[in-house]
Amino acid sequence: MENYIVEMLNITKIFPGIIANDDITLKLKKGEIHALLGENGAGKSTLMSVLFGLYQPEKGEIRKNGEIVKINNPNDANALGIGMVHQHFKLVEIFTVLENIILGVEPNKMGFLQKKEAREKVVELSERYGLMVNPDALIEEITVGMQQRVEILKMLYRDNEILIFDEPTAVLTPQEIKELLQIMKGFAKEGKSILFITHKLNEIMEVADRCTVLRKGKYIGTVDVKDTTKEELSKMMVGRDISFSVDKEENKPGEIVLSVKNLSVASKIHKNNAVKNVSFHVRRGEIVCLAGIDGNGQTEFVNALTGLDKVSSGSIALCGKDITKAPIRQRSVMGMSHIPEDRHKHGLVLDYKLEENLVLQRYWQPEFQKGGFIKFDAVRKYAENLIENYDIRSGQGPITLARSMSGGNQQKAIIAREIDKEHELLVAVQPTRGLDVGAIEYVHKQLVARRDAGKAVFLVSLELEEVMNVSDRILVMYEGEIVGELDPKTTTVQELGLYMSGAKRDMVKEINDAG
Amino acid sequence: MQDKNSSYNKNRFDLKSITHTSGFSSFTSALMAIFLGLIFGFIVMLVAMPENSLAGFQYVVFGGLNRIGDVFYFATPILMTGLAVGFAFKMGLFNIGASGQYTMGMFFAIYVGFMWDLPSNIHWIVAILAGMLGGMIWGFIPGIFKAILNVNEVITSIMFNYIGMYLVDMIIQGSSVMYISTKTRTNYLPASVQIPSLGISGSNVNFGIIFAIVIGIILYIVLQKTTFGYELKATGFNKHASEYAGMKGKTNIIITMIIAGGLAGLGGAFAILAPSAIAGSSMTYEPINIIAANGFNGIAVALLGNSHPIGIIFSSVFISHIQRGGTLASLVGYKPEIIDVVIAVIIYFSAFAMIMNSALARFIKKRVDKKHAAMETKEGEAVQSDLDEVSDNGREEAE
Question: What predicted TM-score, i.e. pTM, was given to this entire model?
Answer without folding.
Answer: 0.73
